[in-house]
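Forwarding the complex inputs:
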Amino acid sequence: MSRAPFTKGEVVLAARQVAKSYGNVHALKGVNFDIHRGQVTTLFGENGAGKSTLMKILSGVIQPTTGEIVLDGQPVAFGSANEARDRGISIIHQELSLAPNLSVRDNIFMGREIMGPTGVNFAEEERQVRRLMEELEEDIDPLTPVEELRLGQQQIVEIARALSVDSRILIMDEPTSALSASEVEVLFKVIRDLTAKGVSIVYISHHLEEALTITDHAVVLRDGTMTAYAPRAEIDLEWIVRNMVGENYDLGAPPATTFGEVALSVRNLSVPDPAGFDLVDKLSLDVRAGEIVCIYGLMGAGRTELLETCAGRLTASGGEIVLEGREISHLSIAERISRGLALVPEDRQRDGLVQTMSVGQNLSLASISSFTRGLFTSRRAERQLIEHSIKTVTVKTAGGHAAIGSLSGGNQQKVVIGKMLATNPRVIMLDEPSRGIDIGAKAEVFKLLAKGAESGLAVIYTTSEVSEGLSIAHRIIVMHKGRISAEFDSTVTKEKIMAASGESVAA
Amino acid sequence: MSATTAPAHPARKSNFSIGRILLEGRAFFALIAIIAVFSFLSPNYFTLSNFLIMSSQVAIYGILSIGMLLVILNGGIDLSVGSILALCGVVAGAMMQGVELDWAGVILYPPVWAVVVLTIAVGGAVGALNGVLISVFKVPPFVATLGVMYVARGVALLMTNGLTYNNLRGAPELGNTGFNWLGFNRIAGVPISVIVLATIAILAGLMLSRSAFGRWLYASGGNERAAELSGVPTRRVKITVYTISGALAAIAGLVLSSQLTSAGPTAGTTYELTAIAAVVIGGAALTGGRGTVRGTMLGAFVIGFLSAGLVIIGVSSYWQTVFTGAVIVLAVLMNSIQYGRGGRKS
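Prediction (whole assembly, two chains):
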């Protein structure tokens, strides 16, 4: 890569007042963002802050609703990721975008195969892949199918693909989430080499300390707006956390309830992964009636698997799940719901809502038997149930007949919660209830949970945002690699929670 | 947010209202158009007797397409119904001809009601096999029912050695007369087959709109994971719809062999495709979760009345095939317009 001499630090790519809305959901609300030549700019922010959206806009994957992108001082509009790539911008996505059935070589050159006189020049492609793998100090044969690689190696392939196009600007969205410590070291060495050659890097990571070791600039996003910007020399960990989380909103405090009997008791629960190790590793947990427990942890900590096993979606390899004194491991999902155990799943589009049904039909879906009289459903009883649910969870909708897609993310989430509350549960488990919903809706959801606890409901919710753990929960449990790594009461500090999750300070 | 969407909705509704009515009632308007055009072209088309004859022909496809609708609502497909129809016709034919029990040295002639019950049971059993393959062994519906399609057809051919059972009228001395009642008799001038279709359609309609099972079916077809997590017994729903589809194919087989008073192993070939076409023309989404009995019935009548009309005005049967195909493509095109625009994010 021979390039013309460059001025380090000059702005190469910039976002000007970029906003992006999906229906009623505002993912970005007018963000300004600069990328400096030959330097690393790190983007910090909680889940749903708009980091990935911003990066997708900069790399041409999606188009902004308003605002403009400025490349080398010229406003540009990328119609597709390919257009952006032709201008020297490439992205390593958070979710791997590899074809598992194809070889490493074919993945790296997917869509831009090197053509020779007799078709694809496989030999040349293979030679280039070998050179890339040497550079990345990774011993991966170019002809191995990607599905045979472990996750970390797949991430390396993804990085190699981005490197193979000689980008001027390289966006890395959580590139280290599946890498081992030594692989991260190599990646950082590669990043330093690249910046020395004048390549600009945008880096996104949840590992705050790790990001601080490599970055030159820090930008913090919160709820779709940029809240802080500073060069590396002026910042520290505490500055990032403070700006990420913010202190100007209130998600409530633990309600003053008297705890009842133990409602849900999990004993030595293990959930196996197809690959062999345990996603949940001999975990024990008691939740009492009226108590709100928050399970905090990073992606892959085993929170979802724990809740889905309790709900009956996944099968445990060992241990007991006891609901109000009765072992329920052998029961079906429907039986567990009728005994009073309800799950609000993490991905509401995939697991929570039926898009082809109306708001009302979604709300009544889990309690059909309660308004079935003999062979037929009673329309009147169903309407009462729907109206009651809409009122209790305060769904803003034109009525039960409205299409589910017409609601905002927060109201959709309330529908999923309302659906499970309509089954009159004793224990409700919510997996990331605040994912992808705005602050106002978040506060309402939490208020709803606090109200439930006051009437004797046992509440368990998971989160990967510390501020949400420090709100209504009486008890905060930190999960790390399938185990409980720490347990706190509601007076704990953010730093302690983050440290226990293996997120930052521990490194 | 309600403040921003509420005014936007009525405005859009009034702009699109005529287009929307035409789009949503397309099967109905297509049927009206077909009847109008053929009534104009042929004086024999718009007569009560012709409508009854056409309807009794539609009955076979109509019964199949109700079963197909249930399967498609579940997000699946059932390619085996044509073969199940033939197999069940042959089974009924064999029973009418007498079941020889070698070990007892007698030939049994079951009464017609027993033939009907046993035949429906056979159809249901084959359908249940589809359901188990798909829900328990996770064979994709297309492949599972394709396999069963071949197997059922093969068994029907084996049973008869490729021949056809003729003369299923039974004999008074054997006590098994009345098989042709289904196909030939009329109540108040209406063919029995049409009454059978209407009964099944009403029951299926009630089941879909009013019963818990209907709600389970729409939910699991719309989003199986969400339905399962809401306590819907998705596996049971799946096995049930394929069983019903098989049983309805058996009823269609009975009606057909009764109309012809013969049962052949090659009957009903490609009927499954006609049934799928009726469901699609009726506005159901092949991805599952959307569709009604009313729409499917309209779809079946559109196909039936169209081909019958082409026969009456003397158009070559090759052209019928072309027209039917064009109608199907048009219907799917309109489906994608309807669901592609309205359903998603506002």
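Residues 234-260 of chain B form the longest helix (27 residues).
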